[in-house]
Amino acid sequence: MVTSDTIAVPQSPEEAYQVYRDAASAVFLAGAQGLKYKKDHYGLIVDLSKAGLRYIRDAGDEVAIGAMTTLADLEKSPVVQAIAGGAICRCIRDIKNSDEKKATIGGVVAVKAPFSVVLPVLMSLRVDVVLEGKGRMNLADYIPCPPMREMVSQVVIAKEEVYTAFAAYRKLPTDEPYLTGAVAALDDEWRVVVGGRPGVAAIAETASAELTEKGMAVRENVAHLASEELDFANYGTCSEQERRSLTVDMVRKLIKEAWKGRSAQLQKAGKR
């Protein structure tokens, strides 16, 4: 478990970020799911439990989620259920380890865990990350950035007509996944995302563009493109080549599932 010389319990996001910046050595205490496995020592732990960051707000054309909102909170939220055919709620429901659901959305985004089930789904959508004192940036741009001593205060998800299908490959239901992915289908755009490579989730840009331009007819080619354009490596019990092969199968299936889901959405809305 992480240790410290002192603990601060700020009452606002602004105060939290200020004490964090002023400290020579500090770490945020959010859901603590990641910290309990570390043995580092810091001068200061910033406890965010009183900073007013646990909320889900419907803001009209987008949904604003406070960084301290847990995955369990998201799973139960009707507002979140209405996004992308319920993909966020479904992928959290797929997590069988109840402790993992205590993790916060801010922690999931900030840690950029390579084997996260949630990150690929978020990256398949239009999502912005609000960094306290620094502004707002697209999640896909934030993920590859090196640590900037930033504080994630909010995650904002745009409301759009989209259906996302996701997958997580595991040996056992409670195991950490060794490959994850998500495919989002909109009326005029597709997004293909692969995680657990073991690098953090990344958008397969070439595959996404090909699918957007040519549609379902090139589904097989797109699955191979996704496997070829992204970096994979040996890690754990899964080799680089196994991950590439599984990616072809995963993307192929997710494209079909996303297409069916989006078609069902259109039929329900009475569109032809």
TrEMBL record:
Residues 1-162 form the FAD-binding PCMH-type domain. SUPFAM superfamilies: CO dehydrogenase flavoprotein C-terminal domain-like (SSF55447), FAD-binding/transporter-associated domain-like (SSF56176). GO terms for molecular function: FAD binding; oxidoreductase activity. Keywords: FAD, Flavoprotein, Oxidoreductase. This is FAD-binding PCMH-type domain-containing protein. It comes from Megasphaera stantonii.
